[in-house]
Amino acid sequence: MKVTIVGGGGFRVPLVYTALLGLSQRLGIDELVLHDVEQARLERIAPVLEGLAAERGVTLPFRGTTDLVDAVRDAEFVLCAIRVGQLEGRVVDESVPLGLGVLGQETTGPGGLCFALRTIPVMMQLAETMAEYAPNAWLINFTNPAGMVTEAVQRVLGERAIGICDSPAGLLRRAARALDREPSELWFDYFGLNHLGWLQGIRDGARELLPELLSSDARLDTFEEGRLFGGEWLRTLEMLPNEYLYYFYYAADTVNAIRESPNSRGSFLLDQQRAFYAEGAQPPAEALERWRKTRHDRERTYMAEARNAAGDCHEHEADANGGYEGEAMAVLEAIAGNTQALLILNTANRSSLPFLDEKAVVEVPCIVGRTGPVPIAVGEVAPHARALVETMKDVERTTIDAAISGSRQQAIRAIALHPLVPSVTTAREIFDGYCERLPGLKEAFPA
Ligand code: G6P
Ligand code: MN
């Protein structure tokens, strides 16, 4: 079985490789190809992977390439996590709106739209390449903004394109732990779009546990989302939102907090990774140690010093519990092993959320076997959540259309109709600000 990682020189690839090391024999993975647009990044990451394999005494040979056709040809699974414009682009995504008093964040708000505008055309090329050279491959997409990107590539690949995110599974795990329960014993009624979802029920047999959880400040205080939103608001809402909804419910607070912080999340990561990649190829043990140290600092420094100041909604505990590579492996295993596993994924709605059309990509629980994910029927949801999902789905689709057509008008329309953008004038200023700082974007969206 051939598995390809697009974005193979990325900083998190060692996490994915570690997870693959554990699975490769069972699933019969005999070819692993890493694709990256930069040979130097592949050369920096390769010895880290060799170090990991040596440490575990397992072999999973891999090769790197910058040729996309070579990388995906006849693959069975293509895992994709790319950052078009790299971290320099993320810094621009985050800082331009902030200068205008609007949220500046990687995936939520105008930052996510700008990120999508430059990412979708590249992802469409990947989709076309897969359609031609890997007609039976599954695309497991982590590339953000994952919901929009997955919906865009589904236009070419249909339901073979699956979007993943670690935040819903993290929320379920944390909620179960707060109830002193095992997630596998419970049914979680979760729905929404990527980074825009809600847990509206936790069922234990015929018993509904969510009211019990929301009524206890002591329990809510034990986990991230409970502390972030606060008991009073959660009891008012009667649902447990995905952490990213913090940017909607506490919009002004997050803008103020981020503006006061000296360093955005993007610029922190940029400095750190520049230093890591600048060191070039090293012997395996040394490369692995250096990667581990960088990663450790990445989580620790940020959590301890910058998180609150930066108004960031995460506590970055995900990796310790399986993280996004854990989600990717769960999908791979469910399809390859036909396990009919229950996973929360980004896939075409069919009729899961009856108020959206069948092709809208949603993030809902799915049964996953060898024919891919089948979304379960969520049904009607609270009017407030439905309204926000409908609005954001329209913003997402407008963004996808803008990205594919290169229409400046559509791009501005998407930004202006985003609920976190206060006026059309601001939307124009944001888009112009992006074009000024990203020459590629200016070229792609001629005035
Ligand atoms: C979570 C989200 C991802 C996002 C990441 C940002 O894991 O689910 O979609 O990319 O956080 O983390 P970072 O360390 O890059 O700020
Ligand atoms: Mn995510």
Automatic annotation (TrEMBL):
<dbReference type="Pfam" id="PF02056">
    <property type="entry name" value="Glyco_hydro_4"/>
</dbReference>
<dbReference type="InterPro" id="IPR001088">
    <property type="entry name" value="Glyco_hydro_4"/>
</dbReference>
<dbReference type="Pfam" id="PF11975">
    <property type="entry name" value="Glyco_hydro_4C"/>
</dbReference>
<comment type="similarity">
    <text>Belongs to the glycosyl hydrolase 4 family.</text>
</comment>
<keyword id="KW-0520">NAD</keyword>
<protein>
    <submittedName>
        <fullName>6-phospho-beta-glucosidase</fullName>
        <ecNumber>3.2.1.86</ecNumber>
    </submittedName>
</protein>
<keyword id="KW-0378">Hydrolase</keyword>
<dbReference type="InterPro" id="IPR015955">
    <property type="entry name" value="Lactate_DH/Glyco_Ohase_4_C"/>
</dbReference>
<keyword id="KW-0326">Glycosidase</keyword>
<dbReference type="InterPro" id="IPR022616">
    <property type="entry name" value="Glyco_hydro_4_C"/>
</dbReference>
<dbReference type="GO" id="GO:0008706">
    <property type="term" value="F:6-phospho-beta-glucosidase activity"/>
</dbReference>
<keyword id="KW-0479">Metal-binding</keyword>
<dbReference type="InterPro" id="IPR019802">
    <property type="entry name" value="GlycHydrolase_4_CS"/>
</dbReference>
<keyword id="KW-0464">Manganese</keyword>
<feature type="domain" description="Glycosyl hydrolase family 4 C-terminal">
    <location>
        <begin position="190"/>
        <end position="421"/>
    </location>
</feature>
<dbReference type="InterPro" id="IPR036291">
    <property type="entry name" value="NAD(P)-bd_dom_sf"/>
</dbReference>
